[in-house]
Specification:
10 helices, Alpha-Beta Plaits, binds adenosine-5'-diphosphate, 12 strands, 309 residues, eight-stranded mixed beta sheet, Ribosomal Protein S5, domain 2, alpha+beta, binds 4-diphosphocytidyl-2-C-methyl-D-erythritol 2-phosphate, 2 domains
């Protein structure tokens, strides 16, 4: 069969954001092993860049550069490669498609910020654009859910409620823009290990519900209210596996953060501050304290995966 002609453009650049969970309520494991969640995702301005270029039919190539590359799988376990193969298989029709993917990582690996999911989401969108496969956003999100629980949100972005195992996303009614300071650890945490520790610590958890105070705070747009309402059921499990995180959280609060939380399964600590000036002050002071490997500022909410060029 003849290989399809490269449609224009020949290369596509997609950018996808990191997430933090403003609320993460976790229930008892389901028969399939996943935990039912009621979560509020929030996309922040730290991005993965994924480039997709036309390649020979059936050729799926990957190059990864940037933050934490040594810990990124380069084989078919990589979420970006899996995304490309999945899209080609399900929506490629009779065409024998191929792609050369390049990921420029800025989101630390296994940090609780969904960097791998951002790569999967970005690769889906980049390949769909490159191969001229026109899919509705909800169809793309449905495909994303096959790659991982956080991938649909990486495509959606903004602030959104997540149900099911996290893959069932809907935009939340939210006002305002928030300033965050993110403190990264020296070593990642395994998401399955943190869920396992959650099970040990919570033999009989209550069914998860999105907290009303957090939704009210988001409707009001006041960072102080939001800071007080941040909640993460996985935080005790992450602290139990990485006790040093307690000091990071306490230090950020002592230095003026209006809220502090472990992001998802950790180990990144996210600090909410009042405004940009406070964000600059806190990031400088936290760096000086030496409690984290690296400290960065970010704002949220930002849009989900999007074509840049
Ligand atoms: C904890 C969260 C919070 O948003 O994110 P991270 O902090 O890892 O970024 C997510 O639930 C992670 O989502 P994601 O990293 O996409 O997980 P998946 O690839 O779907 O699943 C990886 C593993 O995590 C566990 N898992 C994941 C989701 C879920 N609702 N229950 C689970 O028990 C399972 O052990 C599963 O095998
Ligand atoms: N493109 C990718 N980038 C980073 N990690 C990936 C990628 N694809 C698969 N992974 C695997 O997913 C794991 C979790 O990755 P990541 O999304 O960075 O963290 P988290 O789930 O804590 O948000 C990594 O340890 C790695 O084995």
């Amino acid at each position: 069969m003849a290989s399809p002609l490269p449609p224009s453009p020949v290369g596509v650049h997609v950018r996808a954001p990191a997430k933090i969970n403003l609320a993460l309520k976790v229930g008892a494991p389901r028969p399939d092993g996943y935990h039912p969640l009621a979560t509020v995702y929030h996309a922040v301005s730290l991005y993965e860049d994924v480039f997709a270029e036309w390649a020979e039919p059936d050729e799926f190539e990957l190059e990864v550069t940037g933050e934490g590359v040594a810990d990124v799988p380069l084989d078919d376990n990589n979420l970006a490669l899996r995304a490309a193969r999945l899209l080609a298989r399900v929506h490629g029709g009779q065409d024998r498609l191929g792609v050369r993917l390049t990921i420029r990582k800025s989101i630390p690996v296994a940090a609780g910020l969904a960097g791998g999911s951002a790569d999967g989401a970005a690769a889906l969108l980049a390949c769909a654009t490159l191969w001229d496969i026109d899919l509705a956003p909800e169809v793309l999100r449905h495909l994303g859910a096959e790659l991982g629980s956080d991938v649909p949100f990486s495509l959606l972005g903004g602030t959104a409620v997540g149900g099911g195992r996290g893959e069932d996303v809907a935009p939340a009614l939210a006002r305002g823009s928030y300033h965050w300071v993110l403190a990264f650890g020296h070593q990642g945490l395994s998401t399955p290990a943190v869920y396992r520790r959650f099970d040990e610590l919570n033999p009989d958890p209550t069914p998860p519900e999105v907290p009303a105070d957090l939704m009210n705070a988001l409707r009001g747009g006041d960072p102080y209210e939001l800071g007080a309402a941040l909640t993460n059921d996985l935080q005790p499990a992450a602290l139990s596996l990485r006790p040093a995180l307690r000091r990071v959280l306490e230090t950020g609060l002592e230095l003026g953060a209006v809220g502090a939380i472990v992001s998802g399964s950790g180990p990144t600590c996210a600090f909410l501050v009042e405004d940009e000036e406070e964000a600059i002050d806190l990031s400088v002071s936290l760096s000086a304290e030496g409690v984290a490997r690296k400290v960065l500022r970010a704002t949220g909410p930002v849009v989900g995966a999007r074509v840049v060029a």
